Amino acid sequence: MSDERPEPGTVRPGGRTAKVREAVLRAAGDALAEDGFDRLDLAEIARRAGVGKTTVYRRWGTVPGLVADLLTEMAEDSLPRTETGTLLGDLTAQARLVQSTLSDARQGPLFRALITAAACDPQTADALHRFYRIRTEEWAPCVTAAIERGEIPEGTSPAELISAVSAPLYYRLLITGTPIDQPAADRAAQAAVTAAKAGAFIA
Amino acid sequence: MSDERPEPGTVRPGGRTAKVREAVLRAAGDALAEDGFDRLDLAEIARRAGVGKTTVYRRWGTVPGLVADLLTEMAEDSLPRTETGTLLGDLTAQARLVQSTLSDARQGPLFRALITAAACDPQTADALHRFYRIRTEEWAPCVTAAIERGEIPEGTSPAELISAVSAPLYYRLLITGTPIDQPAADRAAQAAVTAAKAGAFIA
DNA sequence: CCTTTAACGCAACTGGAGTTCCGTTATGAG
DNA sequence: CTCATAACGGAACTCCAGTTGCGTTAAAGG
């Protein structure tokens, strides 16, 4: 009984199929940023993308499924990382990047919607975890360099330290609603570095 | 044109009305914890609560509206606060309380659902912000006491410090999916205290 | 260039979340 | 106790998100 058919879009991924995926993911990002996760209608996405709604339902099925695919694509293009020569400098740059992303008129609502979608669906959650694991690994060299320079103790976990910088900003975005401004970013970086120097992030 | 009618349940809040509210909010909490925010159906809530679905739709209208009311009720019963005599002791207790809540089989999913609902609706977001503002204020005395004892510098913002303890744990719950264990809680408290002593949370 | 069929798109259909109607219960005031 | 009406509950209805059927377009292999 080999009635297993491949995922739509995998056998002939060229030309039209790729254009459809690109248009739909772009429309999905726009709609998520504008309306949020729960008000999403796949038919509306199809209309925006100039694509038949049947196609969207057939290839992605559900809103979380579509968001998971969007996250997979977002994980592919990486961010420029600043090298300032000090841990505080590097992590302040990271904090300010997160700050400007989360307070951006499009990106802020988009990230909130992505996290929301992940909270509702295991498959999307996996995609989100992968996305942040990749982003964290991209910043890890800052930490290992600081260890080599002797700024922070050996055994400090890069992932723990990097997360500690972002966490307070996401906490504002999702929990308290306090504005995510540059002082908040600088404080997050400063606090994380101070704690790291004292050995708080040794796994 | 005074065709403004009061919210249902405000004119005769006694007996039956109160019982209905209690039953519905309890059912809503159960359903949120089990199924999550997006799979919520007000008719299902009504069934669980042993109440007509018309009643639920009339009084709360939408899922976010119901969640907002649930948050308002949750904000009313407060938590026992531990007093250990040191800032690290108090904040470790706080971190462990958050840790055990978020990793609890019922409470973890419930909080995730509440935060999700708030991300989808402004009214619910207000209710969530109020909930956490109240919880933060309940813990603030730990911080002011520590300032008086001279453990941390004057001008340290209680809200900033308290948030810094919780943030890494919520970051795990919502973003990375890393397990929320006791070492993580202890590390969060330790890092926050270290940073606070160095003056990282002076507004 | 020709053939096969994956993938798309239109239009008709379906199921269930949310609404409306109206009769019933019981709260709170006098 | 009695009365007016706030609030509840069952059932029928509406509307649209999501599905299905089928004909059309174009990707990939020869």
TrEMBL record, chains A, B:
<dbReference type="GO" id="GO:0003700">
    <property type="term" value="F:DNA-binding transcription factor activity"/>
</dbReference>
<dbReference type="Pfam" id="PF00440">
    <property type="entry name" value="TetR_N"/>
</dbReference>
<keyword id="KW-0238">DNA-binding</keyword>
<keyword id="KW-0805">Transcription regulation</keyword>
<feature type="domain" description="HTH tetR-type">
    <location>
        <begin position="18"/>
        <end position="78"/>
    </location>
</feature>
<dbReference type="InterPro" id="IPR011075">
    <property type="entry name" value="TetR_C"/>
</dbReference>
<dbReference type="Pfam" id="PF16859">
    <property type="entry name" value="TetR_C_11"/>
</dbReference>
<dbReference type="InterPro" id="IPR009057">
    <property type="entry name" value="Homeodomain-like_sf"/>
</dbReference>
<dbReference type="InterPro" id="IPR036271">
    <property type="entry name" value="Tet_transcr_reg_TetR-rel_C_sf"/>
</dbReference>
<protein>
    <submittedName>
        <fullName>TetR/AcrR family transcriptional regulator</fullName>
    </submittedName>
</protein>
<dbReference type="GO" id="GO:0000976">
    <property type="term" value="F:transcription cis-regulatory region binding"/>
</dbReference>
<keyword id="KW-0804">Transcription</keyword>
<dbReference type="InterPro" id="IPR050109">
    <property type="entry name" value="HTH-type_TetR-like_transc_reg"/>
</dbReference>
<feature type="DNA-binding region" description="H-T-H motif">
    <location>
        <begin position="41"/>
        <end position="60"/>
    </location>
</feature>
<dbReference type="InterPro" id="IPR001647">
    <property type="entry name" value="HTH_TetR"/>
</dbReference>
